[in-house]
Amino acid sequence: MKRSLLFLSFLLLLVLTPALAQQKSKAVQNLEKQRKAALEAVKKTEKELNKTRQDRTKKQSEVKLLRRKEEQQKKVVNLLDQEIKTYDKEIDSLARTAIDLQGQEEEKKKAYERSVVAVQKRKNSTNGFLFILSSKDFDQALRRVRFISQYATAHERAAEALRETRKKIENTKDHLLQTKKNKSDLLVVREREYNKLSKMRKKAGTEVANLRGQEKKLQQQKKKYQQRAASLNRKIEQQIAKEIEENERKAREASKKGGVERKAATKGGYEMTAEERKLSGSFASNRGNLLVPVNGPYTIVSHFGVQRHKLASKVQTNNSGVDLSVPPGTKVRAVFDGTVSSVFVVSGYNNSIIIRHGNYLTVYANVTNLQVKKGQRVTTGQTLGTVATSDGNTILHFQLWHERTKQNPELWIR
């Protein structure tokens, strides 16, 4: 009875062990699938990262992508840890199975040895045929025939069970060795991924620190720029107010003497002669078709109004005009016919020129090698000077006003 239970336990173990091994394999396969998906996400983000690196103005996007890649890499490492833990459990299970099978093998060896000894003794003591013939009756003879047959079958089964157990032990050992190898390979991969993650964290920290430093520097530049821009705008506003006041005085004198009539288009605006009114109307009709204030290629590096800085989103500037980056030596030109109403110097902008076109004004700042003077009439496209170069940058600051109101120059030039 005890041997029958042992044999049934062995059969049950043979059936359940492959199922358990298959279940573990599916768990590992599922984790491998998740890891591959995570690695694909890493590769996809890496492509975006490489694309972003090509444009330095997208540094913040690069840091954001770097952090996203770090999270994805962390997921890869976590999945590797889970795979390794699964392999650890599978190794433990296989090791226990191997121990159990070895114990069963020892039991089957002993049973087989007893079977062999019993068969040898019977062969030595009597002949099976005589054993049957010496039966008292026919029924006893049948029982002795069945006994000999069952004894031989039991002997063969014991030998076969021993061979199957040995085969199962070898297979389990092979599986155990392969699983241990898989775990070792994963440990190498995990170490590599840990190193990548560590480098990415360090790089992301450096990038963030650099951006913070850069943003601080830009804030300082912004403050300096705002001070310069405010100084330029004050000067322009003072000049406009001065011209309006002067025109009002001339209008009063003309009225007393019966001279040329001056009339403002708007209340409190610049009082114009008929010729100036005609010029103003012609200027307004050319909205969107005015010349660009430089005679060569240019790039608008700062647009009109409130703008976020390209490298630091928290840094904002309020531009009263547009800034055109040009090659060194580029000439500045009048965008329309008019009269030079003022030439002055503002720190950071070199020379600045204001040209009046009736009740419209255009401003050209950061000019050197002046070729015009106050009171001079200019024509469309006439050279006013050269764009100055400072700190390695050649930038013309251009503004357009209607009376006392700033306009967006990009809506006026072609």
Question: pLDDT under 50 segments (min length 5)?
Answer: 1-24
Strand content: 15-25%
Helical residue percent band: 55-70%
The radius of gyration is 48 Å
Element string (H = helix, E = strand): HHHHEEHEEEEEEEEEEEEE
Question: How many distinct beta strands?
Answer: 15
User: In this structure, how is the largest beta sheet organized?
Assistant: 11 strands, antiparallel
Number of helices: 5
**Overall pLDDT level:** 75
SS-derived structural category: alpha+beta
Overall form: rod-shaped
Structure description:
- With 414 residues, the protein is of the alpha+beta class.
- Helices cover 62% and strands 17% of the residues.
- It has five helices and 15 strands.
- The strands form three sheets. Strands 3, 6, 7, 8, 9, 10, 11, 12, 13, 14 and 15 form an eleven-stranded antiparallel β-sheet that branches. Strands 1-2 form a two-stranded antiparallel sheet. A two-stranded antiparallel sheet has the order 4-5.
- The protein is rod-shaped.
- It starts with a helix and ends in a 7-residue tail after the last strand.
- 22% of the residues are buried.
- The model is unreliable at 1-24 (pLDDT under 50).
